[in-house]
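User: Need the bound-state model for flavin-adenine dinucleotide:
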Amino acid sequence: MAEIFVLVDHANGQVRKTTNELLTIAARLGEPSAIYLGPGAADAQATLAKYGAKRVYALDSADVTGYLVAPQAEFIAALAKKLKPAAILIPANPAGKEIGARVAIKTDSGLITDAIDVQPADGGAIETTQSVFAGSYTVKAKVTKGTPIICVKPNSAAPQENAAAGQVVPVNLTIPESAKGAQITEAKEKQSTGRPELTEAAIVVAGGRGTGGDFSAVEAFADSLGAAVGASRAAVDAGWYPHTSQIGQTGKQVSPQLYVAAGISGAIQHRAGMQTSKTIVAVNKDPEAPIFELVDFGVVGDLFTVLPAATEKIQAS
Ligand code: FAD
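Assistant: Bound-state model below.
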């Protein structure tokens, strides 16, 4: 069966949910193999095998961990040239997209970014549904040259357990000096909010100018659902919420199972970051707000009444 590479997204050995989603997609297409770069492959192996990774190609070297993405691309390209996988799946985050582009050039292959679905097609081809123009359209796309390299957005598949007798396969590869690129001289850990990562979360609750700067109702509602908290640019520009939480054309793009917009009007630039969400709910006191054009469920009301009432119901259930 054709081998499908999946680049493991992990933070200090903790495998992120996106990886399990990618392994689930890989199992549809062929035999999943994980690529694990950095320390902790042996600890991660059980999780990766649980989601179908038959093998875990691992490299733990300062040649990779001490640099930005260039050595990762070098490693994946070298492995792909040797083992000729049927496809390479990479998380569609900023680092992943840069790795994908570099691997595509090194292997003379086609690249698809921001895939939200990947399926086997006739004749062994792979068809993707791709979100383009900042989420304004979705198109069907196939790679027609080389190895399909596909960057897949978080929440594009529900992770399915598919136990495999996975094993770690250490790969010895020296990254040439010329391929290392930018070196990391200092790394600062981000302060944790205790909430899920915005781009990975299954549920996102976002607040806009309608909060008037008071995000307490948005946060309490998010916490009752185990959700991440996002914000519109108006809220970020006002200094009410950090820029890292901005959703939209000039912020992050999210595609959760459930997106709740509270006090957000639904400007085109905001939609660009959230309109591929599976279910969209809006709470807005203006029945004419444009956000209601794209919602699955809309509540016309004051967010400071609606959200606490919903939070109370969820907590009581
Ligand atoms: P508003 O448009 O002011 O809407 C506030 C809403 O809250 C209104 O609909 C109002 O009815 C409702 N409301 C008020 N009080 C309550 C209440 N108590 N309860 C319930 N509802 C209430 N925007 C982004 O979000 N992300 C981007 O990445 C982004 N990039 C941009 C890039 C460019 C180049 C430009 C020009 C703009 C960009 N914008 C972006 C800005 C965008 O055009 C809008 O200005 C912004 O999204 C508006 O934010 P908002 O919906 O929170 O505020």
